[in-house]
Amino acid sequence: MDHTILITGGAGFIGSHVVRLFVNNYPQYKIVNLDALTYAGNLENLNDIKDKPNYTFVKGDITDEAFIDELFQEFAFDGVIHLAAESHVDRSIMDPLAFIKTNVMGTATLLNTARKYWKDNLEGKRFYHISTDEVYGSLGQEGFFTEETPYDPRSPYSASKASSDHFVMAWYHTYHLPVVISNCSNNYGSNHFPEKLIPLAIHNIKNNKPVPVYGKGENVRDWLFVEDHARAIDTIYHKGRIGETYNIGGFNEWKNIDLINLLCIIMDKKLGRAPGTSASLITFVKDRAGHDLRYAIDATKLNKELGWYPSLQFEEGLEKTVDWYLSNEEWLDHVTSGAYQDYYSDQYQKR
Ligand code: NAD
């Protein structure tokens, strides 16, 4: 094992795909997955790789300074890929301080500890921070977010991620910590907690429940298959230039209502239902406070400089995602039981 990487948030949606890719593709690396297992962390996401010799799971909190210090001492990490975060915008509106604690203080704790252990020998070290396009704010009908777009976060979630990005760059400029950042568009795919639009819609359609769509469904998001994001993270970790930011996206914009209609067509087909059955479940709900109108990523820098491109067309990725949810009922049942249900009945009031 010639290289030890700490991956934070590896039991979550994107993190589990990143852990799997690194464990499988780099048997010569030691991968340590640190996750606090909040409501969003699910070790079932990693059942297939949990016994691999180059994989270790550690339960812990990135805001716990003493614990993070011990972890660095024990494993002598060469790299950090930092995904742990509170990640759901609606939850950030209800409980903003939790987001500041994990996303800002947690990131600063990791940066400070990496600096402490690496400062005498920065050779071969890398701190890779995973962030979101939401830090750039909201676009009108035209234009794209580039790496030069000024930050303009609007929600407590995006403000906490923007803040963490700034701290990462501060550690680079002030302490020369070898950092790299990527800002990605909305992800979809397997292992996605069903509080987010696509898995929630699949779950509700399957169970003949209303499919909540904010406002009139006019908001535009740029969607990327999660396994393509994990491939981009692999590329940037190994080839990205220190001190740089890379935007990740697939030039794949969809209005929420168009996406849900496409999903309904796929679901009718998969479930053998008459055309239009799933679409009849669409229910418009009160819009999210401060709802950003449009996000769209320009990933040209990543395409041209590092040669990464998405591997899937959206329709293909969406169909794969539906197939996964329909054939992993046990996973879905486990995460949709208990507190999750109460949370959703409070959250989505009918208009
Ligand atoms: P997620 O909510 O599914 O997973 C987050 C993981 O972090 C969970 O496993 C959770 O248990 C863990 N975690 C939370 N607080 C922690 C703490 N204090 N200490 C240790 N672990 C903790 O999130 P995700 O959608 O997989 O997002 C992962 C990262 O990617 C986040 O940083 C997010 O901002 C970023 N991102 C997400 C998207 C998206 O579309 N989901 C897009 C761009 C960027």
Automatic annotation (TrEMBL):
One of its GO terms (biological process) is nucleotide-sugar metabolic process. Residues 6-321 form the NAD(P)-binding domain. GO terms for molecular function: dTDP-glucose 4,6-dehydratase activity. It catalyses: dTDP-alpha-D-glucose = dTDP-4-dehydro-6-deoxy-alpha-D-glucose + H2O. Signal peptide: none annotated. Its EC number is 4.2.1.46. Its cofactor is NAD(+). SUPFAM superfamilies: NAD(P)-binding Rossmann-fold domains. It comes from the Bacteria. InterPro entries: dTDP_Gluc_deHydtase, NAD(P)-bd_dom, NAD(P)-bd_dom_sf. Belongs to the NAD(P)-dependent epimerase/dehydratase family. dTDP-glucose dehydratase subfamily. NCBIfam families: dTDP_gluc_dehyt (TIGR01181). This is dTDP-glucose 4,6-dehydratase. The gene is rfbB.
